[in-house]
C-alpha cells in the first residue's frame, strides 16, 4: 500500500477536530480560527466555510446525516442542523458554567439523545437532550 499526502488549504490556525460525514465523501474540520470547513475529499477542496457560534468549537460529532453536535469553549453543547446547505442552530443541549470549556464529546451510538462531554477542569458528564 502506497502512502500519499494531500494538503488541504483553508484554515489559518490549528485544526482541533476532523469529523467524517456519514456518506464518507466529506470531512468537516474545526479550527482555532473559529471556522468549520466542509471538505470534498476526492476534489481536495473546501466546499463551505462556517463561522462558529460562541467562540471556539473544540470537537464535533455527526448525530445523523442532517445533525451535528459541537463541543464549545463557552461551556455549551450545540446541535446544528443542515437545511438547504446551511448550518442552523437547532438547540442547546447543555448550558454550562461560564468558566468551563467543553473540549471533547461523544454521542451514544444507539440513542443519539445521549451526549457525553469532557471539560477543561477534568469532569466527564452525560446529558440527555
Give the helix level as a range of percent: under 10%
The tally of strands reads 11
CATH architecture: 7 Propeller
Main beta-sheet strand count, sense and barrel state = 4 strands, antiparallel
| Rg from Cα | 15 Å
What is the global morphology? globular
Order of helices and strands: EEEEEEEEEEE
Query: Any idea how many domains?
Result: 1
CATH topology: Methylamine Dehydrogenase, Chain H
Provide the CATH top-level class: Mainly Beta
Q: Terminal Cα separation, in Å?
A: 43 Å
In CATH, the homologous superfamily goes by the name YVTN repeat-like/Quinoprotein amine dehydrogenase
Secondary structure class reads mainly beta
The proportion of strand residues reads over 45%
Enumerate the strands of the largest sheet in spatial order, edge to edge or round the barrel. 1-2-3-4
Mean residue pLDDT: 79
Low-confidence parts, pLDDT < 50 over ≥5 residues?
none
The number of helical elements comes to 0
Structural features, described:
- The protein has 129 residues and is mainly β.
- It has one domain: 7 Propeller (Methylamine Dehydrogenase, Chain H).
- Helices cover 0% and strands 56% of the residues.
- It has no helices and eleven strands.
- It has strands spanning 15-20, 26-31, 35-40, 45-51, 57-62, 67-72, 76-83, 86-95, 102-107, 114-119, 124-128.
- The strands form three sheets. The protein has a four-stranded antiparallel β-sheet with strand order 1-2-3-4, with no helix packed on it. A four-stranded antiparallel β-sheet has the order 5-6-7-8, with no helix packed on it. It has a three-stranded antiparallel β-sheet with strand order 9-10-11, with no helix packed on it.
- Strand 6 (67-72) and strand 7 (76-83) form a beta hairpin.
- The chain starts with 14 loop residues before the first strand and ends with a strand.
- The mean pLDDT is 79.
